[in-house]
Amino acid sequence: MGRDRFISLMKAGLIYDRSKGFKAEADADLATIASILKTALGGDFEFVPKCFVCNSSVECYLCAYCHICDVKSSTPNCLCDKCMDREDAFAIYSRTLNSRTLMKKIS
Q1: Which of 11, 53, 78, 103 is within CB 3.0–4.6 Å of 58 for a Cys-Cys bond?
Q2: Are 61 and 70 in contact (CB under 8 A)?
Q3: Residue 23 forms beta bridges with which residues?
Q4: For residue 90, how many other CB atoms are within 10 A of its CB?
């Protein structure tokens, strides 16, 4: 990949963890990241969002909102089908959001 591309990816909001690989920060510039990776990899790839609540993979093509969501240009706070189907989905989402906001303020 090269040092310069790696640095550009980090500046755009990508985080590298040796055990887990790459992960985008919440405020990452996904359009820039996509452009850098497409050039570096020489082909297309796909962002795989994680559930905001339980951290499981989200299947974008199954989501009711896929026609209005552009995961490549924004970092979504998606819910997986399991979390979305819960009766208290909004309450759980709100608690998770409040908890993460509090953690960011502390750190």
Answers
A1: 78
A2: no
A3: 15
A4: 10
Helix axes 30-41, 3-11, angle to 10 degrees: 160
Q: What's the whole-number mean pLDDT along residues 50-64?
A: 82
Q: If you count DSSP H runs as helices and E runs as strands, how many of each does the chain have, helices first?
A: 4, 2
Q: Which domain holds residue 31?
A: 3-106
Q: Is the pTM of this model over 0.70?
A: no
What band does 16 get if pLDDT is binned at 50, 70 and 90? confident
Amino acid at 43: G
Q: Which tokens in the block code for residue 52?
A: 């905001």
Number of domains present in the structure of the chain: 1
CA distance 104 to 45: 30
Q: Beta-carbon neighbour count of residue 89 at 10 Å?
A: 14
